[in-house]
Amino acid sequence: MSVALSIKEVAELEHIGEKAVLMKIRRGKLRAVKVDSETGIGYGFEYAIDLQDLSEKAQRKYHKRLKEQAAALLPEPE
């Protein structure tokens, strides 16, 4: 199962700026797929980046956040 991330999400996970993510995409150092923009703002497309294309550290950070979010949804034990 693949997880598609936005430029903003990738920037946060990799601790780099959004412009740096765009430069990596343009230089071919980070794979991304253009998808139709849901907001309609800008050029009409956004980039989707697969989680598996990020560094191991960023992937671990993503999974840690996911577990924390899931734990927050569980009811407190009595």
Largest sheet: 3 strands, antiparallel
Mean pLDDT: 90
Helical percentage: 40-55%
Low-confidence stretches: none
- How many helix segments? 3
Label this structure with key terms.
78 residues; 3-stranded antiparallel sheet; 3 helices; 45% helix
Helix and strand arrangement:
Blueprint: E1 4-5, H1 7-14, H2 18-26, E2 33-36, E3 45-50, H3 56-73
Antiparallel strand pairs: 1-3, 2-3
Helix pairs in contact: 1-2
Structure in words:
The protein is of the alpha+beta class and 78 residues long. It has three helices and three strands. The protein has helices spanning 7-14, 18-26, 56-73, and strands spanning 4-5, 33-36, 45-50. Strands 1-3-2 form a three-stranded antiparallel beta sheet. A hairpin with an 8-residue loop joins strand 2 and strand 3. Helix 1 packs across helix 2 (18-26). The chain is globular. The mean pLDDT is 90.
Short description:
With 78 residues, this protein is an alpha+beta fold. Helix content is 45%, strand content 15%.
